[in-house]
Amino acid sequence: MEEAVVSTITHGGMVSPDLSIFGLFLEADFIVKLVIIILVFCSFWCWAIIFEKSLRIRRLGRMAERFEKNFWSGGSLEDLYDRMGERATHPMAVLFGAAMREWRRSSLQVASGSERQIHGVEDRIAHALEVTLNREQVELEKYLGFLATVGSTAPFIGLFGTVWGIMNSFQSIAASNDTSLAVVAPGIAEALFATALGLVAAIPAVVAYNKLSMDIGRYVERLDIFSSEFRALLSRQLEEKVS
To answer: Measuring CA to CA, which of 112, 123, 126, 171 is 20 to 30 A from 11?
Structure first.
């Protein structure tokens, strides 16, 4: 206890302000505290999104690779769909399931249908794949907007805290008629602390947003290629059934 007291006393007997991170937060103005809390929350939430998205994209990539091996193994698509059932756990399997459900609904039309009906079946399968792909893409991109928002606004939120802290410093000078560093240091330190937190929140958010956007874009492109190949495969099977 005595050591804590000694550490806050200068050689001239004056109390030295606590410029540690925790001390700056405790001594900060209410507005600066609010800015700090917002930035800390945004930073933690951004890191949670970054970890969740990164791990999920890696996991989906591995699952898609295994699924494609089964899909192109030469086995029956009907058997693969029966084994999978309604337990699709990743977007590529969801795409496959959506197309196969539409295929089975239209199987009777395919068996005894005209060319016009067959084109209608192809259109419905293509539409099911397109809608499912768009829905899965929206789900994959969920919360990326928050990263973009934090990356673009956090520095300005920190700057607001900076301006407010400097205003407090000038008010302290005006109230005490003292321009010594001891008077203005706490307010300036609060201001710089808010600026630093704004950068700490913004920089990882911007970097992660760009990285995750590229990773998701590549994965969606992989799904789109699979969708096109699957449609071509089903179209060939339709022609074989009719001929």
So the answer is: 171
How far apart are the two ends of the chain, measured CA to CA in Å?
A: 92
Tokens at 63, concatenated: 């699952």
Residue type, 56: R
Range ranked top by mean pLDDT from 65-74, 96-105, 181-190, 220-229: 220-229
Q: Where are the alpha helices (DSSP H) in the chain?
A: 2-7, 21-27, 30-71, 77-84, 91-105, 107-111, 115-140, 144-176, 181-242
Which DSSP category does 9 fall into?
B
The residues, ordered by sequence, that sit 6+ positions from 50 with a Cβ below 8 Å of its Cβ are: 147, 204, 208, 212
pLDDT > 60? residue 2: no
**Cα–Cα dist 145/225, whole Å:** 26
Q: What is the DSSP letter of 13?
A: S
Max Cα-Cα span within the chain: 101
pLDDT over 80 at 238, yes or no: no
pLDDT in tens, 41-61: 999 999 999 999 999 999 999
Average of per-residue pLDDT across 105-125: 69
Asked if 208 and 57 touch (Cβ cutoff 8 Å), the reply is no
pTM: 0.80
Per-residue b or e along 143-159, where b marks 16 or more CB atoms closer than 10 Å to that residue's CB: ebeebbebbeebbebbe
- Domain regions of the chain by residue span: 28-242
